[in-house]
């Protein structure tokens, strides 16, 4: 056999062997049985990206349902369900039921509210203008969702809520009750990083164009931003635009973690985050990680005009209930390949799954979200569930 053919044969064997070894390593891990309520009301496509990466981590770490089966991102959640064929725009809903609350709270081990923002007409139906927010089809945290949180906390169960759990379109009363239960304060400011603020750019078609109308109304001048930046919003009445170069040294916000929690959960001291976030006052709660927006003096002055600063919590651990957490960002929305969930050691490597560039959005999942979720769930499993 010629040398090139031998080399080709060896490469093909290695390509086949490594995934097989990786799968068997995954299959022979200890199964950790935990029944989990996952709520996602923002599912405008079959990708179900707003909770898919959470299910990926649960599957990869062999956290399974009490009956032994792995979690499915397609079916194992409550919320909005698009139906096939997608072009017909049919949908159904699966909601948490008040009559089941006591039995569920007794039998379930954890609760994760991934996204309650919902689905809207201009996102769901083609041909409707996206220049402004439209009527809600489905969404918002309701009183039943709140009561599940209450009952789970009373039983000292694991509870994790993410960004938008109590913002628009959640009703004011439910918002107040959830904030009070978590022991935090929120006065309405949310924000997001945008790689380009240029609304005329061909590759920036998904930019929320209604923001420009808000800006023109508030400042009585045109939207002229072209570079990357951060947009901060408070309801539909206030908007702040921080542009790289003028207001920001680096447009993409950083998540900083001190040595105590970095070592505990295996987190990097700094990672960039490009998703939606909210500005939370943690009050007496513990802050695991915090956001840092790298502002210039001009950016600091602009924030100061609205009584804002450039550092605020990213992950909060509730002081009144150590098994309750609030993630101050859209952490679960990550584009991961589901087929890698049952492999150990193949995915997650630098240069394969993510690059060395700080701005690579994939770094957030592999370096921060995955170890954080794995650490929190395993800590709870060892301390409470395994006893």
- Report the order of strands and helices: HEEHEEEHEEHEHEHEHEEEHEEEHEEH
Shape: globular
Number of strands: 18
Radius of gyration: 22 Å
Structural class: alpha/beta
Number of domains: 3
User: Mean pLDDT score, rounded?
Assistant: 90
- End-to-end span in angstroms? 59 Å
Approximately what portion of the residues adopt beta-strand conformation?
15-25%
Biggest sheet details: 10 strands, mixed
Number of helices: 10
Low-confidence regions? none
Largest beta sheet: what is the strand line-up?
5-4-2-6-9-18-17-16-13-14
Structure write-up:
- The protein has helices at residues 3-27, 49-60, 101-107, 121-124, 143-154, 172-182, 210-219, 259-265, 297-304, 362-385; strands spanning 32-33, 36-40, 63-64, 78-82, 91-94, 110-115, 119-120, 136-138, 158-162, 189-194, 229-234, 238-243, 248-257, 270-272, 277-278, 286-295, 311-317, 324-327.
- It is globular.
- It has three domains: 1-28; 31-183 and 318-387, no CATH class; 187-281 and 288-316, no CATH class.
- It is α/β, with parallel strands linked by helices and 387 residues long.
- It has ten helices and 18 strands.
Which terms would index this structure?
387 residues; 4-stranded antiparallel β-sheet; 10-stranded mixed β-sheet; 10 helices; alpha/beta; single chain; 3 domains
């Amino acid at each position: 056999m010629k040398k090139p053919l031998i080399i080709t044969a060896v490469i093909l064997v290695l390509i086949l062997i490594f995934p097989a070894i990786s799968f068997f390593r995954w299959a022979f891990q200890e199964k950790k049985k935990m029944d989990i309520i996952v709520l996602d009301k923002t599912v405008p496509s079959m990708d179900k990206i707003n909770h898919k990466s959470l299910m990926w981590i649960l599957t990869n770490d062999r956290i399974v349902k009490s009956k032994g089966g792995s979690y499915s991102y397609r079916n194992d959640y409550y919320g909005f369900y698009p139906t096939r064929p997608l072009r017909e725009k049919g949908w159904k809903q699966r909601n948490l039921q008040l009559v089941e609350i006591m039995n569920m709270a007794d039998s379930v081990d954890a609760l994760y509210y991934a996204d309650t923002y919902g689905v809207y007409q201009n996102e769901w139906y083609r041909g409707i203008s996206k220049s402004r927010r439209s009527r809600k089809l489905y969404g918002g945290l309701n009183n039943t969702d709140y009561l599940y949180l209450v009952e789970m906390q009373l039983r000292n169960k694991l509870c994790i809520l993410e960004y938008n759990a109590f913002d628009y379109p959640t009703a004011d009363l439910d918002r107040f009750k959830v904030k009070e239960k978590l022991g935090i304060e929120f006065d309405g400011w949310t924000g997001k990083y945008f790689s380009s603020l240029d609304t005329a750019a061909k590759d920036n078609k998904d930019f929320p164009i209604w923001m420009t109308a808000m800006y023109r109304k508030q400042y009585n001048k045109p939207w002229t931003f072209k570079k990357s930046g951060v947009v901060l919003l408070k309801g539909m009445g206030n908007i702040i635009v921080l542009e790289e170069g003028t207001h920001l040294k680096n447009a993409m916000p950083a998540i900083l973690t001190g040595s105590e929690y970095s070592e505990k959960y295996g987190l990097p001291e700094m990672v960039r985050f490009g998703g939606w976030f909210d500005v939370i006052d943690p009050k007496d709660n513990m802050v695991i990680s915090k956001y840092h927006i790298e502002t210039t003096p001009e950016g600091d002055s602009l924030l100061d005009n609205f009584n804002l600063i450039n550092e605020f919590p990213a992950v909060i651990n509730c002081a009144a209930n150590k098994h309750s957490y609030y993630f101050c960002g859209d952490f679960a929305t990550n584009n991961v390949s589901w087929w890698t969930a049952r492999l150990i050691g193949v995915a997650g490597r630098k240069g394969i799954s993510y690059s060395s560039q700080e701005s690579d959005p994939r770094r957030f999942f592999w370096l921060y979200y995955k170890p954080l979720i794995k650490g929190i769930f395993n800590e709870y499993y060892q301390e409470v569930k395994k006893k």
